[in-house]
Every structure is written in structure tokens, then in C-alpha cells.
TrEMBL record:
<dbReference type="GO" id="GO:0000146">
    <property type="term" value="F:microfilament motor activity"/>
</dbReference>
<dbReference type="GO" id="GO:0005884">
    <property type="term" value="C:actin filament"/>
</dbReference>
<feature type="binding site">
    <location>
        <begin position="258"/>
        <end position="265"/>
    </location>
    <ligand>
        <name>ATP</name>
    </ligand>
</feature>
<dbReference type="InterPro" id="IPR036961">
    <property type="entry name" value="Kinesin_motor_dom_sf"/>
</dbReference>
<dbReference type="GO" id="GO:0016459">
    <property type="term" value="C:myosin complex"/>
</dbReference>
<dbReference type="InterPro" id="IPR027417">
    <property type="entry name" value="P-loop_NTPase"/>
</dbReference>
<dbReference type="GO" id="GO:0035556">
    <property type="term" value="P:intracellular signal transduction"/>
</dbReference>
<dbReference type="GO" id="GO:0016020">
    <property type="term" value="C:membrane"/>
</dbReference>
<keyword id="KW-0518">Myosin</keyword>
<protein>
    <submittedName>
        <fullName>(Atlantic silverside) hypothetical protein</fullName>
    </submittedName>
</protein>
<dbReference type="InterPro" id="IPR000159">
    <property type="entry name" value="RA_dom"/>
</dbReference>
<dbReference type="GO" id="GO:0005096">
    <property type="term" value="F:GTPase activator activity"/>
</dbReference>
<keyword id="KW-0963">Cytoplasm</keyword>
<dbReference type="GO" id="GO:0045198">
    <property type="term" value="P:establishment of epithelial cell apical/basal polarity"/>
</dbReference>
<keyword id="KW-0770">Synapse</keyword>
<feature type="domain" description="Ras-associating">
    <location>
        <begin position="26"/>
        <end position="127"/>
    </location>
</feature>
<dbReference type="Pfam" id="PF00788">
    <property type="entry name" value="RA"/>
</dbReference>
Amino acid sequence: MSARDAVGGLAVAMGTLGRRQRLENSEFTVRVYPGALAEGTIYCPISARKSTTAAEAIERVLERLRLDRARCYVLAEVKEFGGEEWILNPGDCPVQRMLLWPRGALEPTTSSTTTSDYRFLLRQKNLDGSIHYGGSLQMWLRVTEERRRMVERGLLPPPRPVAHGDHADLCGLPQLSERALLDNLRARFHQEKIYTYVGSILIVINPFRFLPIYNPKYVKMYDDHSLGDLEPHIYAVADVAYHAMLQRQSNQCIVISGESGSGKTQSTNFLIHHLTALSQKGFASGNQKQVRLPHVNEAPGPRNLSAELARGGSG
Ligand SMILES: Nc1ncnc2c1ncn2[C@@H]1O[C@H](COP(=O)(O)OP(=O)(O)OP(=O)(O)O)[C@@H](O)[C@H]1O
């Protein structure tokens, strides 16, 4: 699917500015379903930009629905009827999440029902930090009931099957298609799993924010394991190369490839970080093999998956 398709029906600003700038400046309509928090309101549409945070979006919803501000609220993203809810951090940007949804989920609707289960729910947070789920499932059932009846009568197409399962190695996918690959990567990305194997190749999707997966605990965890033993990680690649160097007594090479901004330099830093840690450990135990810094292949990569997913990928 092209980038244009992915944002079809959403982007309102057209002009001579570059596509990226247009996206940054565009106003999007985010539908927030308050459920039982505002009986009688199916959804509250608010306008937001790509940079609008969840906290700002909640503020707009509270203002429009005149909800009790003494309470604490969060936005939850759902992609499947009755499926898991992903709570957005206050600094997360709902529009950026929406841009990862398939095209059908973004199309404007004319009735009170929607053609997709992708949506944002407004949730109330309890004092202990847990989420208050009271009643909103019933509201959601009511909202989607009409749509379900129309599907049964053949007036609407049935929802597309959602790819279930989470494959840490794309070679393990039961069905090999671009959509299945991107769905799997997208599902993992939403769980903050930015690394995925394709056999011995590691795909990295740039999260553009720091994830706490590079601390000494992870360095230790990924020491001396075969590829695939643990959750995919850049440290696992460094570890395999380092131990292959020791065992085979031969040079090893790691090729890092991707488009500009995809994270090659950052990945190189993580590799060096892990190789240095392993090297220091080896030195301390009398193993004095020298680790030469990897050379980064600056050739254009096959595809920039981060950008692809951000554009709506396979939608
Ligand atoms: N693993 C990561 N975790 C968090 N942020 C990341 C990660 N990888 C990349 N980034 C973010 O993406 C930005 C761009 O990454 P980076 O500079 O590594 O790209 P690059 O592929 O080397 O780009 P170029 O080819 O233009 O030099 C970084 O400044 C960083 O903010």
C-alpha cells in the first residue's frame, strides 16, 4: 500500500509542501470512545496533529464531554473486538498510532457505527494505578451491535481476519506474504519488540524513543547464547559474532544496512557496546582477542521498515 493510501481520508492539508511536512501539519480526527464514562456519547471526535500527545488528547475530550477532572484518565488503543487494550503513555501520540492502522480503520464513516474495531477508548485510572473497566464493554457491545447485524445480513463485508500469534522469527510464519510479514512486525512493534529475526538476519524497527533493553542486565542475559534462544536482540547478534570469532579463530563481519535515519549508527553503537563488554570480560579471563570496530555499510537498504510501518505498511 502506498503512503498516500495509508493516510487516505485523513490528511486534509494539501499544498506544495513536501509530503513529510504535510503530514506533520495535517489535522487528523481522532475518535475517542468514552464508554460508560459518558453515557449517551458513542464517540467524541477531537482534532489532533501528529505531535499531539495522549495527555493533550484526553484534555480535549474532558473539555468536550465535561467530565470530572478530579479523576485520572488514560487512552487505550484497541485493534480487535474484545482484544487487548494498549494503554498509551501521556507522551505517546495517538495520531502516530493511527497511522499504523490499516486503511479501512482510517476511513471516515457516515453513521454512528464504524467499519473497524480499531479505536481509542477513554479509560479511568483507579487510585492504585489500575484501569477501571466498569461498564464500557457493554457500551462497546451496543455500539458494534448494529454493525454486526449488518455483517450477518451481508450488507457489510466481514472484518478481515487479524493475524494472531507473534513470531520472533519470520521464517516461522505459517503463511508467507507481505501482509503477514508486516502484520507480525507491527504486532511486535506495538509490544515494544523492535527486533525480529529472519533466520540469522535481524530486522530492527526504529522506535525513535529509548527502550530500557540495553542495560547491563541485558548484556549479561545475551552472553553466550545461540541465536534464537532468547527474544531477538542486537546483543544476540554481537554475541554470536564474538563467540564465532573465538571458536573459529576467524574474522567476523556484521552488515548493517538501511535507509538514512533507520538507526544504523544507533545499532552500531549497541553492537560496539556489547562487543566491548564481552571483550572486557574475555580480557579479564585471559582471553585477549582484539575486537575491531564494525564497519557500517552505508549502501541504501532494501526498505525502511520503520517508515513503512509508520505509513500504514500492509494496510
Ligand atoms: N534502537 C533505537 N532505539 C531508540 N532510538 C533509536 C534507535 N535506533 C535509532 N534511533 C533513533 O533514530 C535516530 C536516527 O538513527 P541513526 O542516526 O542511527 O540513523 P542512521 O541510519 O545512522 O542515519 P544516517 O544514515 O542518516 O546516518 C537516532 O537519533 C535515534 O533517535
